[in-house]
Design a protein that fits this description.
The chain has helices spanning 11-21, 26-34, 62-71, and strands spanning 40-47, 74-81. Strands 1-2 form a two-stranded parallel sheet. The chain has one domain. The chain starts with 10 loop residues before the first helix and ends with a strand. By secondary structure, it is of the alpha+beta class. Helix content is 35%, strand content 19%. This is DUF4279 domain-containing protein. It comes from Streptosporangium roseum (strain ATCC 12428 / DSM 43021 / JCM 3005 / KCTC 9067 / NCIMB 10171 / NRRL 2505 / NI 9100).
Length: 85
Amino acid sequence: MDSGLPETTSLDDQVEAVLSRLDGTCERIGELTALGSEAGLVMFRSFEPGPASTRLGLLLSEEIIGFLHKAGAHVWIDEYGYEDE
């Protein structure tokens, strides 16, 4: 599921958008993962050279962590850095 937000939106806001779309499904997802299905929150971020500041780090709120825990979901974060040539 995609957040539907522009790629330049912060990861924090992207996560909030995705989980708001899943509101009310946490227990059902948890039931499915308990039966062997897999659920995950997968995020990709790239850092490009230049003067634009990019907020480093990611803050997952207690509510988001609780949702992921109840759903039996894992978190996968890939970050890529690009150096000036």
